[in-house]
Structure formats: structure tokens, C-alpha cells
Amino acid sequence: MARNAARRVRSPMIRLLPFLLLGATAVRAQPLPVVPPSSEVAAPFAIPTLRGDTVRLADFAGKVVVVNLWATWCGPCLNELPDLGRLHRDFEAEGLAVVGVAHAMSDTTLFDDYAERLDVDFPLLFSTDRLPPTYGPRIVWPTTLLIDRAGHVRLFVQGATTYDALEPLVRSLLAEAPPSPVVGGQ
């Protein structure tokens, strides 16, 4: 009798396993194509670095910005940091900025070590708690947002991404005309 009870308990779990695995793979799906600009502008933020400087989204006005939400305890996050560093180096001169914003529970003593070891030369900020809610739910790590020169969020990727996935999207946004300045306060 105990044997049948154990079989009944295991059976529903085994039936759910394919759906659980499917859900786990869906999080790692490749990014979507760049979407047309919307009227919604990315919410401003002001987040300190560990050295006491403050980095604001406004500091990157007129640039294409990659905002990466990561954590020191997240393996996929650490795996994608070198790709983001390469993306930054390859396109910074053309108007790309990359910013990493670490999870509130990240070990900040590891930032410098990771930056050196993973060849990260873009700002690493602390913490995601200081980002407005419009930067999405913080339940999947890493999460990457791509913001165009006009400040519109054009891509939102939950889960790890790669240089190869982001590079054509970044090129496309860099090729778009910069926004026209507002003349006469209009």
C-alpha cells in the first residue's frame, strides 16, 4: 500500500517535468528583433558606483544604451559580461554605452575582480533596487534592455544573451538617425 502511495505522488511530478523543462528553456530564448520606437521613454535613473560617482541615464543622451541587470551570484550573468564588454569596446566610438546594474544582494567586493577577470570596461552600478519599476520584473537574471538614441526601450531580454545576438541589433540602432533637438521649447 505504501508503495502505491509513493507511485501516486511521483506520477504527477513526472507528468509535470516536460512542462517545467520547457519553461526553463523558454527563459533562454533568443532576443526578439528590435521593435519600432514607442512613445514611452525609458525611465530616468541615478545610481551610484562603488567609488561614489553617480551614473544617470541622462549621461548617455543621444547614445544607444545597453542596460544589463546582473548579479555576482548568477552564472549566466558572469558568462555574458565578457560579450557585453566586447560590444562596448567595438561600438563605443559609434555611440554605444553599456551599463551593468547589479542585484541588491550581489557581493560588491567582487566587482573589481570580475571587471578585471572578465574584461569589463563599462560602469558596474549597485543596485537594481534603485531602478524604476519600468525596467521590468527582477525575477530572471540576467535581464538586458536596449535603449535607442531617443531614449525608447527597443529590446527587453530576460535570460542570458550573447554578442552575436546583440551586435546586429546594436548596429541597426546606431544606424538610425539621432533624434532632432527641440527648437524654441516646442
Could you please describe the fold and organization of this structure?
The protein is α/β, with parallel strands linked by helices. The chain has one domain: Glutaredoxin. The chain is built from 4 helices and 7 strands. It has helices at residues 2-27, 75-91, 111-117, 163-175; strands at residues 46-48, 54-56, 64-70, 96-102, 124-126, 143-147, 153-158. Helix 3 links the parallel strand 4 and strand 5 (124-126). Helix 2 packs parallel to helix 4 (163-175). The longest helix has 26 residues, at 2-27. Mean pLDDT is 79; it is low at 5-32.
- Which percent bin holds the helix content? 25-40%
Strand content: 15-25%
CATH topology: Glutaredoxin
Name the CATH superfamily assignment. Answer: Glutaredoxin
From the alpha carbons, calculate the radius of gyration and give it in angstroms.
Answer: 20 Å
Shape assignment: globular
**Whole-number count of domains:** 1
User: Do you know the CATH architecture?
Assistant: 3-Layer(aba) Sandwich
Q: Give the ordered list of helices and strands.
A: HEEEHEHEEEH
Number of E-type strands: 7
What is the overall number of helices? Answer: 4
The class by helix and strand makeup works out as: alpha/beta
The biggest beta sheet, please?
A: 5 strands, mixed
At the first level of CATH, the class is: Alpha Beta
Overall pLDDT score: 79
Give the strand line-up of the largest sheet.
5-4-3-6-7
